[in-house]
Amino acid sequence: MAVRIADYFSLHQRRVVWLTVGLQVMVTSVLAFLLFNSSFNPLGIAIFVLLPVVVLQAFAFTVVLRYTLSPLNVLTRAIAHISNENNDVIPPNINGTYHERTGLKPMVETIYNLTVNGPKVPVATSTGLEKTVLEHVPSGIIALNAKREIIYANDAAPVITDANGQKSIQLLFEGEDKLDQWLASSEKSAVSDTHAWARVQDSLPDSDGRHIFDVVANYNKNGTGGVETLIVAVDRTAHYATDEEDMDFIALAAHELRGPITVIRGYLDVLADELQPQLRPDQMELFRRLSVSASRLSGYVSNILNVSRYDRRHLQLHLHEDRLVDIYNGIADDLNLRATTQSRILNVAIPADLPTIAADRNSLSEVIANLVDNAIKYSADGGIVEVSASVEGDFVKCVVTDHGIGIPGSVVGHLFSKFYRSHRSRQTVAGTGLGLYISKAIVESHGGRIGVSSTEGQGSVFTFLVPIYSTVADKLVGDDNGNEGIIASGSGWIKNHSKFQG
Question: Which fold has domain 317-501?
Answer without folding.
Answer: Heat Shock Protein 90 (3.30.565)
